[in-house]
Design brief:
Helices cover about 70% and strands about 0% of the residues. Strands 1-2 form a two-stranded antiparallel ribbon. α10 packs antiparallel against α11. The protein is globular, with a radius of gyration of 22 Å. A hairpin with a 5-residue loop joins β1 and β2. The protein has about 325 residues and is an all-alpha fold. The protein has one domain. The two termini are about 20 Å apart.
Length: about 325
C-alpha cells in the first residue's frame, strides 16, 4: 500500500505523513460534495420545464452606424490589444521588478509571464468598455429581449411572461453564481473524465495519439506553488483577470454578435467551441467548450454578465486551490501505455 510522504508524493508505509494524508482527504471530500451538489444544480437548472430567459443585450450603435461595423470593432480591437501589448508589459516588469521587490522575494520568468498576462487582461478589459459603450452594448447591465429592453423592467416582464407560460422565472443574478459554479464544476470534471477515456480509446484502438499534457499554466502552478509572489500573480491572472476579460469578450461581445447573425443555438455552440479552442489543449477542449456553452446559457437566463464572471472566477479559484492543496487530484496519472 502507498502512502503520501512529506512532499505530497507517494512513499512507503514508513514515510506516511498524517497531515498530508488529512489534507488530501479533506480536499477530496470537499470536491466530492461540490460535484454532488453540482449534479443537483444541473438537474434543477435543466429539468422538464425550462426557466424563462431574461435575454441578452445586443449592440445598438448610433444612427447611421451599421451594427456589423460596431460589432467588428468591438471584437477586433480588443484582440489587437491582447496580442500586441504583452511584449511591452513583459519588458517593463522585468526592468522594474528586480529594483522594487524586497530582498529574498522570488522573481522568475513564469511569475513575470503571469503578471504580464494579468496586465494584458486588464488593458484588454479596459478597451472593451468604451468600445461597448460606443456600440450601445451594456456589458455589465441587465439583459433585454431582442436587444431592445435592457432595464430591470425587461427582466420583470420576462419573469411575468415566463410565469404566465408555465415556466419558472429567470435565475436570480444576485445569488446564482454559486449554483452555476457547482453545475459548471460538475460538467467540467465529468467531461474531463470522458476526454481521458476518448484519449485512451484513440491511442489503443485507433492508434492516434492525442495531446494529453496538462495546460501549461497547470504545470507552472505545480512547479511554483510554494512561492508567495507566484501565487499572488496566479490569483491575479487566473481568478481576477481571466474571468473578467474572457467573459466580457466571449459572453459579453461575441455571443450577442453571433446570436444576432446566426441564431441562439449556433451562437451558444460556436462561442463554446471558440472558448475551448483558445486554451490550446486537446484534453481540455471538450470540457472547456461545454463550460463556455453553459456560461452562455447562464448569461441568457440571468440577463447579467456578472453571474458569468463570478461563476468563472469561482471555478478558476477552485482549480487553483486544488492544484496547490492537492496536486495528486489536480494531476491524474497518464493513460496506461
Amino acid at each position: 500500500m502507498r502512502f503520501l510522504n512529506g512532499t505530497g508524493g507517494a512513499g512507503s508505509a514508513g514515510d506516511v505523513n498524517p497531515l498530508a494524508t488529512l489534507r488530501l482527504v479533506v480536499v477530496a471530500g470537499a470536491s466530492l460534495v461540490i460535484l454532488l451538489a453540482g449534479i443537483v444544480m444541473l438537474v434543477w437548472q435543466f429539468r422538464g420545464r425550462h426557466h424563462a430567459r431574461a435575454g441578452i443585450p445586443f449592440a445598438q450603435p448610433p444612427a447611421g452606424v451599421p451594427p456589423i461595423l460596431a460589432e467588428a470593432l468591438l471584437l477586433l480591437l480588443p484582440i489587437a490589444v491582447f496580442v500586441f501589448t504583452p511584449p511591452f508589459f513583459y519588458t517593463l516588469l522585468n526592468l522594474l521588478a528586480p529594483r522594487v521587490l524586497p530582498e529574498g522575494m522570488d522573481w522568475n520568468i513564469e511569475t513575470a509571464r503571469l503578471l504580464t498576462q494579468f496586465a494584458t487582461q486588464i488593458c484588454t478589459a479596459g478597451a472593451l468598455f468604451p468600445l461597448a459603450w460606443m456600440a450601445g452594448l451594456p456589458l455589465l447591465g441587465t439583459g433585454g429581449t431582442a436587444g431592445t429592453e435592457t432595464s430591470a423592467a425587461s427582466n420583470a416582464n420576462a419573469a411575468s411572461a415566463g410565469t404566465a407560460a408555465g415556466k419558472r422565472p429567470p435565475l436570480l443574478p444576485r445569488w446564482h453564481a454559486a449554483p452555476c459554479f457547482l453545475a459548471a464544476a460538475t460538467l467540467v470534471v465529468t467531461l474531463t473524465f470522458v476526454s481521458h477515456v476518448i484519449a485512451w480509446v484513440s491511442e489503443h484502438v485507433l492508434g492516434i495519439t492525442l495531446n494529453t499534457n496538462k495546460q501549461e499554466v497547470v504545470e507552472m502552478v505545480m512547479r511554483h506553488k510554494d512561492e508567495p509572489l507566484f501565487l499572488m500573480a496566479a490569483v491575479a491572472a487566473l481568478v481576477i483577470g481571466a474571468p473578467l476579460v474572457e467573459e466580457l469578450f466571449f459572453r459579453g461581445a461575441l455571443f450577442p454578435t453571433l446570436h444576432r447573425l446566426a441564431g441562439r443555438v449556433p451562437a451558444i455552440v460556436l462561442t463554446g467551441v471558440l472558448f475551448g479552442a483558445i486554451h490550446f489543449n486537446a484534453m481540455a477542449f471538450l470540457p472547456l467548450s461545454a463550460l463556455g456553452a453553459y456560461l452562455c446559457i447562464a448569461y441568457e437566463r440571468t440577463g447579467n454578465l456578472r453571474v458569468c464572471i463570478a461563476t468563472h472566477a469561482l471555478f478558476n479559484l477552485y482549480s487553483l486551490v486544488l492544484m496547490v492543496a492537492a496536486p495528486e487530484l489536480a494531476a491524474p496519472p497518464a493513460p496506461p501505455q
